[in-house]
Amino acid sequence: MQALRPQGTAIDLAFYQGGADRLRLGEEFHHNGLNLRCAQINRVPRGMAFAWDKRRLAAETVKLLAARGDEIKAQLITHVVPIEDGPVFLGHLIAQRPEFLQIVFKVAD
Q: Is the model's pTM score more than 0.85?
């Protein structure tokens, strides 16, 4: 949360089977008005269920990524960082405040 600018958003695509005990939503989160969005695993966003079911959402997402995935990546993702380099990279974000739009932490195949 320290790496975000005021009113920034962190998007968490992980699933914490054992909980997230070490997630600290204290000073940075509240004082800087941060947003935390989590993945909607196997779920249609509320308010869209009248027009979308799970099958349609999944099919359209795959279709979009197949057609425009490289373009989306080039325009939206400014950094791809190996997950093992994550702690050092986050320290750099906090200390140096470089410009970024979206950071993806890559897990090896």
A: no
Q: For residues 54 and 42, is the Cβ–Cβ distance under 8 A? A: yes
Q: Which residues lie closer than 8 Å to 60 by C-beta, 6 or more apart?
A: none
CB 41 within 8 Å of CB 15: yes
Contacts of 97 (CB under 8 A, 6+ apart): none
Over the chain (109 residues), the average pLDDT of each successive run of 10 is 84 71 78 81 77 86 91 87 93 87 85
E-assigned strand segments in the chain: 9-12, 35-38, 79-82, 103-106
